[in-house]
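Field notebook, page 281. I keep forgetting to write these up properly, so this time I am using the form the group agreed on. The chain and the ligand, zinc ion, are recorded exactly as supplied. Prediction of the bound pose follows.
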Amino acid sequence: MIDRFKLGAGLVIFASVGIFGSQAIPWSHVNSLSFLSVGQGDATLVRSEGKAILIDGGPATPSFDAGARLVVPWLKRTGVRQIDLFVVTHPDQDHVGGLPGIARQIPIREIVIRDDFRSHPVWQAVSSEPALRGVPITYLKQGRTRKIGEANLTFWVLPALGTKDDNDLSLVTLIEIAGSRALLTGDLPSTGEQALIRKGLPPASLLKLGHHGSSTSTSVELLEVIQPETAIASVGATNNYGHPAWQTLQRLRRAGIRLKRTDRDGTLTFVPNYGRWTLSR
Ligand SMILES: [Zn+2]
């Protein structure tokens, strides 16, 4: 009887860890990086020691607000009660459109954006939304590092490329948690990637493809420096832009890099694993 009881209890414990493993670990102790499936746009969540950093907030159109309809429910479901830092890569609708809808329901402690966008008309409109009034905004004129929880963030403010394209001024973020690195370049084109390489980039095992996998980003040179194991394409299903571009996919294939995409794979959560990242879902 005793043996059977022990066996039974063991099975119960095994089942609860096996099936509900992710819920069994308190979120306050989890280090993770999630690429949210928000359609054609970007929203990336970093969690570390109970802190939450959101890099971009997904798209919003007059008919669908991915911030309010997708990001907020996901944050609530996974226990995020507050965003400690919201990073705006650049004020295009597919990155910043969802921010007001998020701010209406989840408190944001601080926003970071490049100083170049201070008087950008889209940013002016977004930042004057009632939900964002009173949220401290840090306007970056130069790169800096921040530590939030166990996550070390490095922001790169690259020089303007002489065009009027917002993508060129994308704020670049390198995330490092427990020795595992991930690079997010917003919608930076390959000309900007050259400037980034000159800054001296370390390798990173995870790369979010610049500009949703457009052919004009993710140069061979960048891949050689970063040497990612996995690349993420944050894209909407059957988007009008043809993202990710076949040229980008070919470059990844030739370099032996695994591709994951939010339109087919849904939201992708990775956990740091001794210099690499393990897909947990
Ligand atoms: Zn974009």
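OBSERVATIONS:
- Residues 238 and 280 are 26 Å apart (CA to CA).
- The radius of gyration is 19 Å.
FOLLOW-UP: compare against the apo run.
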